[in-house]
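Subject line: Sequence and fold of a protein, written as structure tokens
Body of memo: The sequence and its backbone structure tokens, given next.
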Amino acid sequence: MAAPLLVLDDVRKVYTRGRVIRRPTFTLQANLSLEEPGIVGVVGPNGAGKTTLFEMMTGSNAPTSGRVLVAGTDIHGVKYRERDRLAIHYHQSYQVRRFRKRVPSALLAPSPTRTPLVHLFDEPQFNLQDGYIGFMLDFFRKLRDEGRLVILCMHPTASWHLDILAEIAGRFLFVAGGGVTPMADFRALVADPRCRSYLGPDMTKAADAICQRST
């Protein structure tokens, strides 16, 4: 039986401050398993730890305790080049430049075997006017269909952001209060009181409308 694509095994990251007496300023904890290829949406307030979570998943930020396993391999226990084979973090500015330079045919071509198993997209800038949004979504689906795990972090500020999440993501992670909560689907995410508070009245209304349309 193949190992899960991504496991956060009692992962804990503690940031501290102070030279003599170190006092914790922020703690992020996560314990989850994403067994199969898919597209996972990540949402949560600013400062909740989403970027820290992504950095731990890709090996660039070591947890204070716990392990991050990609296909059974501890990503913090291998060399840099091996980490790149396991997971990659597309930062916002890098991701936008990369995709604007690519033609659609390149996006949809089969991925080489060295393509990482886990792809993390950190708040990509979807522009409705440049025509690339459809190609990017197809690229996410292509990675999923080739057996990879796509994790997409978004900060919804418009109703069409929610449409993207509802359409593309099969599962969700809600990051808030120093914790990471797995959600089975978009409906479960929107039903969570913490998520509704984070979205605010207008975005919550838009999310409810999306759920109603899908019934």
